[in-house]
Amino acid sequence: MAVMQTTRRADRDEVIARLRAALPARAVLTHPDEVMLYEYDGSALDMALPDLVVVPGDTAETATAVRIAADAGWPIVARGAGTGLSGGSVASEGGLVISLARLDRILEIDPAGRSARVQPGVVNVELSERAAPHGLHFAPDPSSQKSSTIGGNAAENAGGPHCLKYGITTNHILAATVVLSDGSIVTFDRQAPDAPEYDLLGVVVGSEGTLGVITELVVRLTPNPERIQTFLAVYDSLDAAADTVSAIIAAGIIPAALEMLEGDGIRVVEESVHAGYPTDAEAVLLIEIDGLHEELESQAGEIAALCDRHGARALQVARDEEQRRRLWAGRKGALAACGRLKPHYHIQDGVVPRSRLSEVLRLTRSVAARHDLLIVNIFHAGDGNLHPLLLFDVREPGVRERAIAASEEILRACVAVGGTLSGEHGIGLEKRDYMSWIFSDADIATMLAVRAVFDPRDVMNPCKQLPTGASCGEIRHAAGAARAVAAGAWI
Ligand SMILES: Cc1cc2nc3c(=O)[nH]c(=O)nc-3n(C[C@H](O)[C@H](O)[C@H](O)COP(=O)(O)OP(=O)(O)OC[C@H]3O[C@@H](n4cnc5c(N)ncnc54)[C@H](O)[C@@H]3O)c2cc1C
């Protein structure tokens, strides 16, 4: 096991004085009313107050803040938009939160090189909007894309509906500038096709703020497809919908997106968003294909035949961009819509082999019944990435504990059928202690040794993603209770 050096924590007044001497006044937030805004993320289970918040204006200010906090032995938690769903930007050990909100500029768009240089606080969808006149877009499209930041996407290695065909965030990051815990500024770059160095960029993407603070990125931009076709396949049986998913991929078709909504999820989304989903269906598949006119004709025919063969009762084709937009508004607004059912939520993020989808979905239903919970599934079916959404009212005695137990049971089932702990939301605090379900002691020790090279003092988002030792204590899932679903309403 890698040994990380710990430093005695200097007291708050001392750190405030050092930060104020080194940074512009507006960059250092100390008032409880301001600091309180940074005590949560979208994960619903954990909340913790940081001691202080710094909002730097550039890489140099970020490095200064990191150096001062690290020298004082303070935990340092980078924060994008705080939409994370695994507690990653919650300051569970206290310390300094560094908000990247002011580093929000698109520095350059290079249409010829199909890339963009951006600061980490740029909101995901804004990059695609700015790239649109060049016929390009940023392919990773998490459902939170109207609010989550590209820095947060890189740190979580975020996915999204269209990542089935285009790949997850790591496939679209070409370079990153990172502030390490000693305040040094390093750039990891893999723009050369066959770079001679270690792929440290690959290590940083998905490291959830545990290796350093990302302050600049070069990202790949993807050409907009010539044509897009979107289908809604409607089912009276969950198994039939799940079988269609496997059949489409088995036929060698990689749709741009292949999403599933089931049961109550369909009804509540329809009531809220009016997306055009049939409310009496047991499951619907949102299938999108894109590419050249000619190839789409034959793919559309194959998909229609597969849906029919596997029991779809209807197949609608979006007739224009407006109808396509409405179908997607339903999928992307699903989490917020579920606020109509219950005021609080906990969303799980497990992965299963596609061939085991229906089995685990059925199990999810039995877990819901056994724990007397409402669970809806709205998820990325094409890559087997389940998102059981556990809905409850935290004022009901004992319900939070039941939700946590049910969530763990579902995740164990995912692992048992050969799946894994997370498809896109990361490990954060929430699943840190589950890592030993799938990794050996030697695996974990190797990852900790890598972490210690970047951060020998264990100050960068400590106690997240990997169990870093006794100092981390038990995860209490306490203070926060569950967050109101209404929080998702701004997504
Ligand atoms: C309604 C809703 C839908 C969602 N849908 C999806 C989805 O489809 N796919 C998906 O993958 N996720 C989804 N998420 C989860 C979340 O939006 C993503 O994880 C997103 O990438 C987080 O970005 P953020 O800017 O909010 O980061 P934060 O929540 O602020 O931080 C997330 C993690 O990244 C670290 N971090 C943030 N910025 C930096 C930085 N500059 N340098 C180093 N570390 C950093 C933090 O320390 C933390 O560990 C969804 C969330 C919500 C609320």
Structure, described:
This protein has 491 residues and is an alpha+beta fold. The chain has four domains: 131 residues, Uridine Diphospho-n-acetylenolpyruvylglucosamine Reductase, domain 2 (2-Layer Sandwich); 118 residues, Uridine Diphospho-n-acetylenolpyruvylglucosamine Reductase, domain 3 (2-Layer Sandwich), CATH 3.30.465; 106 residues, 2-Layer Sandwich (Alpha-Beta Plaits); 89 residues, Alpha-Beta Plaits (2-Layer Sandwich). The protein has 16 helices and 20 strands. Helix 8 runs antiparallel to helix 13. The longest helix is centred in the C-terminal third of the chain and has 18 residues. The radius of gyration is 22 Å and the shape is globular. The two termini are 41 Å apart. The N terminus and C terminus are likely disordered. The structure holds flavin-adenine dinucleotide.
Number of strand segments: 20
Give the strand order of the largest sheet, numbering strands 1, 2, ... along the chain.
15-12-14-13-18-20-16
In CATH terms, the superfamily of the largest domain is: Uridine Diphospho-n-acetylenolpyruvylglucosamine Reductase, domain 2
Low-pLDDT parts are: 1-6, 478-491
If you average the pLDDT, what whole number results? 91
Which architecture of the largest domain would the CATH scheme give at its second level?
Answer: 2-Layer Sandwich
CATH class of the largest domain, anyone?
Answer: Alpha Beta
**Distinct ligands:** flavin-adenine dinucleotide
CATH domain topology of the largest domain: Uridine Diphospho-n-acetylenolpyruvylglucosamine Reductase, domain 2
- Provide the gyration radius in Å: 22 Å
Helix content: 25-40%
The figure for the number of domains is 4
Question: What count of helical segments does DSSP give?
Answer: 16
Sheet with the most strands, sense and barrel status: 7 strands, antiparallel
> Based on helices, strands and strand pairing, what is the structural class?
alpha+beta
> How widely separated are the two ends?
41 Å
- Shape descriptor: globular
- Taken as a percent bin, the fraction of beta residues is 15-25%
